[in-house]
């Protein structure tokens, strides 16, 4: 396709988004006003569905408990645009729901604005029918890895196998025919109009640890007890003693918390529970670090002569961004936002996202875009530039998809990149291998 023709399609897409900018912003605020946690995003899904239906799209719902998707255009190359539905818990945030503590302090409402905005741009303008591929718009449940007691209940009931919504979409086969995947994410502490598009992230294992001892009167007869809190403290310190063996390039992060530390101060604690993640830059490094962390945790039980149970659950896979799509994205960012909009370098970020799982199978992008003040998840996180936060990212993704889906060479390059990635079964084997329960008993 000629450059002129591509430029004309992009102009139509951007005009269609500008024409509905106020509506996109109002939608983002409406989602923000009713935050819902993962796998509970019923109202939020309905809000997205009603806008998809306004575009005359056929919508499928309940992808993984919640969630929705709609496909537009034709051709056997499929590009997915994703938006995360869920909020997180931070009761100290001024916009938190007073009952649940849920709040959009990770900007997922901006992702949904981006999702519907991209649909307004590509479908509302009619441009999607001029492309050599289809675009699937997907509202995805449960990105934040939290509220885990609830999710373990879903898991035990057989409603889900994985805590992450994108992992569930993969397991259920929704991702099988995707050739490319695009989303955006609110940049942390990024009020200015800048974009970081080319980077990698850590993967992780999630961990529940239970130390069991024997209760006893803490004053009259502590010698008859086995102190599970002492076991936990020894275990945690043994974890800290592993840190000098973690290689810098693996970006290992281990950050345990105690979730139950004892029940009454005059009783020797008989049961103490902890949660942790073990994160690292590659699947192999996660597995290595996790093995030494589990050994260290067991040492706590050995030290006091108690029991330990360690339940490991798959966390998220490391994210890798796709060069071809990033190159288009950056070019559009320079055109639309400004020549200095794209930050230099290809950083590694030690946080994690289940978009990482998607990029293990499908070439994709997960750019961090500006317009947000305060750190993501923190109480002072807020939007300071509504156009940048809610409207411009939709133009960037829509124009990137125009570039990709009008270029046979680029589509071939992305397909080639996909051929080198994992298939669904290989992915599922890798993720399932991280689900283990280890129990050790050191009773006298
Ligand atoms: Zn988050
Ligand atoms: Zn997020």
TrEMBL record:
GO cellular component: cytoplasm
GO biological process, one term: folic acid catabolic process
A Pfam family this chain is assigned to: Peptidase_M20
Keywords: Hydrolase
Gene3D superfamilies: 3.30.70.360, Zn peptidases
Entry-linked InterPro entries: Amidohydrolase, Bact_exopeptidase_dim_dom, Peptidase_M20, Peptidase_M20/M20A_hydrolases, Peptidase_M20_dimer, Xaa-Arg_dipeptidase
Highest taxon above the source species: Archaea
Example GO molecular function: para-aminobenzoyl-glutamate hydrolase activity
Domain spans labelled Peptidase M20 dimerisation: 202-299
Family, per entry: Belongs to the peptidase M20A family.
NCBIfam families assigned to the protein according to its UniProt record, in alphabetical order: amidohydrolases
Name this protein carries in UniProt: Peptidase M20 domain-containing protein 2
Source species of the chain: Haloferax massiliensis
């Amino acid at each position: 396709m000629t450059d002129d023709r591509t430029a004309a399609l992009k102009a139509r897409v951007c005009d269609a988004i500008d024409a509905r900018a106020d509506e996109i912003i109002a939608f983002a605020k409406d989602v923000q006003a009713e935050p819902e946690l993962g796998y509970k995003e019923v109202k939020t899904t309905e809000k997205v569905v009603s806008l998809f239906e306004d575009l005359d799209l056929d919508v499928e719902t309940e992808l993984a408990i919640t969630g929705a998707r709609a496909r537009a255009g034709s051709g056997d190359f499929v590009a997915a645009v994703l938006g995360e539905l869920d909020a997180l818990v931070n009761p100290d945030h001024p916009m938190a729901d007073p009952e649940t503590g849920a709040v959009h302090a990770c900007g997922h409402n901006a992702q949904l604005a981006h999702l519907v905005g991209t649909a307004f741009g590509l479908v509302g303008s009619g441009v999607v029918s001029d492309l050599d591929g289809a675009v699937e718009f997907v509202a995805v449940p449960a990105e934040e890895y939290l509220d885990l007691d609830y999710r373990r209940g879903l898991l035990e009931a057989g409603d889900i196998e994985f805590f992450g919504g994108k992992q569930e979409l993969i397991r259920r086969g929704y991702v099988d025919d995707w050739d490319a995947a695009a989303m955006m994410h609110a940049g942390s502490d990024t009020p200015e109009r800048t974009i970081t598009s080319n980077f990698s992230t850590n993967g992780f294992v999630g961990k529940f640890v239970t130390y069991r001892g024997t209760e006893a009167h803490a004053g009259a007869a502590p010698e008859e007890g086995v102190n599970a809190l002492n076991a936990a403290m020894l275990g945690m310190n043994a974890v800290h003693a592993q840190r000098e063996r973690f290689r810098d390039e693996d970006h290992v992060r281990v950050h345990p918390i105690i979730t139950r530390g004892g029940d009454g101060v005059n009783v020797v604690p008989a049961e103490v529970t902890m949660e942790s993640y073990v994160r690292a830059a590659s699947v192999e490094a996660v597995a290595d670090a996790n093995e030494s962390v589990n050994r260290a945790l067991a040492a706590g039980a050995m030290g006091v002569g108690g029991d330990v149970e360690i339940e490991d659950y798959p966390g998220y896979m490391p994210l890798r961004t796709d060069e071809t799509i990033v190159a288009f994205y950056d070019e559009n960012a320079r055109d639309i936002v400004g020549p200095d909009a794209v930050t230099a370098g290809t950083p590694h970020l030690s946080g994690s996202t289940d978009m990482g799982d998607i990029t293990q199978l499908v070439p994709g992008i997960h750019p961090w875009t500006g317009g947000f003040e305060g750190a993501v998840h923190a109480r002072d996180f807020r939007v300071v530039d509504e156009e940048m936060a809610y409207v411009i990212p939709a133009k960037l993704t829509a124009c990137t998809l125009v570039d990709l889906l009008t270029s046979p060479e680029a589509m071939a390059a992305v397909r080639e990149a996909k051929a080198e990635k994992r298939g669904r079964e290989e992915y599922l084997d890798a993720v399932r291998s991280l689900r283990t329960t280890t129990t050790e008993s050191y009773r006298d």
